[in-house]
Specification:
The protein is an alpha+beta fold and 433 residues long. The chain is built from eleven helices and 16 strands. The chain is globular, with a radius of gyration of 28 Å.
């Protein structure tokens, strides 16, 4: 058994000899990465201590290798490789081409990992690349994962994923504002406590009965994550001089589509599969006869439907055309109420910040019974983030059969939940028929 353990340790150390130098966007990511490598080496040292006597020569050599790797890690941690924008695009494009063509060794070199066809996605930490191909580190020692030639779906290098998601945040209004929750499983239960909860009683006489009361405790609500899939029209002619363009194309297509979908699920979605703030059960509404009858008093009425302690963290979300109409509402003398003709666009909407969201209804699209603006604290929206972006060559489509068009499919897992909308979220809406 000791020989098998030593053989497995040798395989892991061989995989670590070339420490992944993909580069890092900031110092914190570099520190987290090298800390993980250090913990991995600690596990190897503990395993070596359990090896039976008689293997001293081999274990001593392995300890020397571990020491060498530790020194290497310390050197790289002190001066981590900075990932340039062009290098990110080049490596991402190279990996996409490798995934398309099934080049497993290149994928391993770039820290992309195969994602097995299961409900629970593969953890990249559980897979290593060796002489026999991909192997599951939690399986029996040295057991290969099988013929990966038939596997066409791969998880993006986590370092690249972090950089891509930073770009996606720039394409989204809501992503930098909502509360993010990391999710290890498909569902988590969140305690959501409303304002108050503690009830106080005054005692005006000695021995007076203290009335029992049950404070309003936290409610447990379920946040579920589902898989989001998208298809990017693709082509299969890959040469090294187009890797940068391939990477740039994927980043642009993914971040734009994902950023818009993120905003839609936060605000507009109606049980598809989540429910956004404007359609959540229990939200307060301010009804106006028509969009042309909108006045500053409607905004004021909406604001005062939210208690002051909640209101201080709230802001408006509306389309830029509605904003333009609102700030140009005129008084009886023909002057704009919120700005004079010579003034710039205000940064506040009746003393509260606002965010322009192009997905919300435009002035021309607002008819009867149309919610068009929402006032809330965006932290009321919980985003469940299950790590991992998967890519796959996809040709099982009607377009592929009829026109020969190919697609690169991407998948990501997310959950959205509006917590305690009653009394905390107010929607402006036109009157119904």
């Amino acid at each position: 058994m000791s020989k098998e353990i030593i053989a497995e340790i040798k395989r892991k150390l061989a995989a670590m000899q070339k420490i992944e130098a993909a580069g890092f966007g900031d110092q914190q990511k570099a520190a987290d990465y090298f800390r993980e490598k250090e913990m991995f080496l600690e596990d190897i040292v503990k395993t070596l201590e359990s090896v039976a006597e008689g293997q001293e020569a081999e274990t001593e050599a392995l300890r020397a290798t571990v020491k060498s790797l530790r020194d290497e890690i310390k050197g790289q941690a002190a001066n981590p490789h900075e990932l340039s924008r062009r290098e990110l695009k080049y490596r991402l494009g190279k990996a996409i081409a490798a995934a398309w063509n099934g080049n497993q060794s290149t994928l391993a070199e770039l820290a992309f990992t195969p994602n097995l066809k299961a409900d629970n996605w593969t953890n990249p930490r559980d897979i290593t690349w060796g002489d026999k191909g991909w192997a599951a580190s939690k399986a029996a020692l040295g057991t290969p994962m099988g013929n990966m030639a038939t596997n066409e779906q791969y998880l993006i290098n986590p370092i690249y994923e972090a950089e891509i998601m930073q770009d996606a945040a720039k394409q989204s209004v809501m992503m930098p504002l909502v509360r993010h929750r990391p999710m290890l499983g498909a569902s988590i239960f969140l305690p959501t406590r409303d304002r108050g909860g503690v009830q106080l009683n005054w005692l005006t006489a000695y021995g007076q009965q203290i009335k029992g009361s049950k404070p309003a405790g936290a409610q447990r609500v379920e946040l579920k994550a589902y898989t989001l899939a998208g298809f990017i029209p693709w082509f299969d002619e890959f040469e090294e001089d187009v890797f940068v363009d391939l990477g740039a194309m994927f980043i642009d297509e993914f971040t734009e589509a994902y950023g818009q979908e993120f905003d839609r699920q936060c605000l507009l979605a109606d049980d598809d599969p989540f429910t956004g703030a404007m359609n959540a059960a229990g939200v307060s509404k301010v009804i106006i006869p028509s969009i042309t009858a909108l006045t500053w008093k409607d905004f004021r009425d909406a604001v005062y439907k939210v208690p002051a302690e909640e209101r201080k963290d709230c802001c408006w979300f509306l389309n830029e055309t509605v904003l333009n109409h609102a700030v140009n509402i005129q008084d009886d003398l023909g002057n704009p109420i919120w700005r004079r003709p010579s003034e710039a666009m205000p940064g506040m909407l009746d003393l509260y910040p606002y965010h322009e969201v192009s997905l919300l209804p435009q002035m021309a699209d607002i008819t009867v019974d149309t919610p068009f603006a929402v006032f809330m604290n965006p932290k009321r929206i919980q985003h469940g983030d299950r790590k991992g972006i998967e890519i796959k060559r996809f040709d099982a489509t009607t377009e592929s059969m009829e026109y020969g068009e190919l697609f690169l499919r991407f998948r990501k897992r997310d959950g959205f939940l509006v917590t305690r909308p009653a009394g905390n979220v107010v929607v402006l809406c036109t009157e119904g028929e």
